[in-house]
Fold:
Amino acid sequence: MATLRVVATYEITIILALLLVIVVGKLLNGEIVTDGLLHTKLPGSEHQISPARVQLLVMTLAGAWEYVTLVLKDYPLHKMPEMPNSLMAVFAGSHAVYLGSKTLPILLTKLRSVIR
Amino acid sequence: MVDFVRRLFSMYTLMVLVGYTLLILIGWLAAIVILKIQRDQIDLTYVLSENDGGASMSRFQLMIFTFVISLSFFLVIVGNGENPPRFPEAIPPGVLALLGISASSYLVSKGIQQNTEEAAAAAAIAVTPSAAKVAAGGTQDFVAKDFAGMTATVTWSIEPNDPAVYGQIDPKMGHYVAPAAVPAAKHITVKATTSGQVVGSATIDLS
Structure:
């Protein structure tokens, strides 16, 4: 059984590592399209950088990094670390800002048409 | 002989046998998927893209967190090799909340995107006539109608915008008056605009 565990561990490690390498490789060499990732999608301003998207990218990478460091501390104990409340709040706020930036123009357009 | 058969089919042997069979099956499936991705038979080119082709931030963050949480989960199960692998006793609510926010954000974003596209389609204006031939000194009236066939309030303009050479259009009524003499470039574009955005157009050929 011990041998089975070792083989299983190596197999899953290799599968996940290969998948990660392929996806990251395709992201870096442009085979996975990332054009316009940080650009606003509003009609007429498609090529402008969107601050809401930039902050979501920064928060996503920072949050992921923070969680990985917590995992690297706790993994020998077979324990998933809890996400700090402060990080959760920042993360939720970041998503709210992003979604708000997408919703606001629609609401304003509808409001204008109602007023008109 | 009976002892040998009993040993061969003991629960322990069966568990190991099932374990190796599952490993081979998983390895085989994973190899097929990875090879297909590598050969672009499973095409990931637009995995982060919206329908319009632009990359989506909500898809990107969902992908990042899927990788981070799944790799973390695997690392936690395996441990550092001192103890046998085992599942964590509990998945912290914060981690589930994080995945929930990440996935919900993606779903809400898709909903907003759909709403925007429908709003853009609904905002589209049909200009009639879409093409007109106007003689020197002649006139032509343009009308903008929305998707329901109702007359829409738009601001009219022409391109090129030089009244002395190409004539002029009433910005409110859509009444075009051609110049007295036909210019060298006889093709004019009529634009219908709302909130600074062009929502419809038509063409004029001067003759």
User: Anything to note?
Assistant: The first strand of chain B starts at residue 126 and ends at 128. Strands of chain B lie at 126-128, 131-134, 139-141, 143-145, 155-159, 168-169, 175-177, 187-194, 197-206.
